[in-house]
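Data availability (excerpt). The following record was deposited with the supplementary files.
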Amino acid sequence: MGCRLCPRKCDIDRERTAGFCGAPAELRVARAALHYFEEPPISGARGSGTVFFSGCSLRCVYCQNRAIRPAESGRAMTVSELGEVFLALQEKGAHNINLVTPTHYADQVARALFGVREKLTVPVVYNCGGYECVETLRLLDGLVDIYLPDFKYISPQMAGDYSAAPLYADYATAALVEMFRQTGKVHFDRDGMLQKGVVVRHLVLPGGRKDSIAVLDRIAATVPVADIRLSLMRQYTPDFCQADVPNLLKRRVTTFEYEQVMRHAVALGFEGYFQTKEAVGKEYTPDFSVPVFPDQR
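Predicted structure:
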């Protein structure tokens, strides 16, 4: 049976050839390590146990993780080995297990989580681009505690030009409904660490202020703003852009652009996390040229 895990629905046999995501059937992990640059209630003091999967079902022209998009990047793993990585990160003190761009391996990730669920005592975070199929998310029902999706665009033009996904907003909206159904309202422990719920990320893009405002309106119309958290990011940098991106993307977001979007978020009643201009810079992105993995038992 062909792969239909993401909205591309390539319907091809990944044992023989890779689909749009570039990933083969075998699991490939680019990096697994403690990471300290997620939202405060996810990174905490000890770090988030991030597992970066190779490949991606989007083609964002400004992607900061482009180095791990090729199918040949990363390390091949079995489902059981992936489960051991989760446990090793937990032993290193991770506040959570943070699955980064896992969509095209969602079925195997679900099996790995199920295999270690009795030993895993920290929350599981599903950290994705928001371009998801509801049917795939249902494979993770009861296995994922925190959903951390992007909601990138409303405009089909922007979504098509920047991520090769003109129907992005439709899929992201339906996915958000399913994510909230699974987790319910946000829940924090006594130390302020997130244990359950949905945090929606939105990256403000240069020249994209009006679309950002439309994204916030869509989120507010889809789920109760008081029961989720918003992460409004201004960390866009042209350092990772493809050479042929539109000129608009060759600059950073202005203070005016970001603050206009932030004011709209506050007016809508969103609570969450906002960034200062100091958050801009490629130093916050892991160095994928030096893969890091916890010692496996």
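Summary of structural features: The helical segments are 40-43, 79-91, 106-116, 134-137, 156-163, 168-183, 209-222, 255-268.
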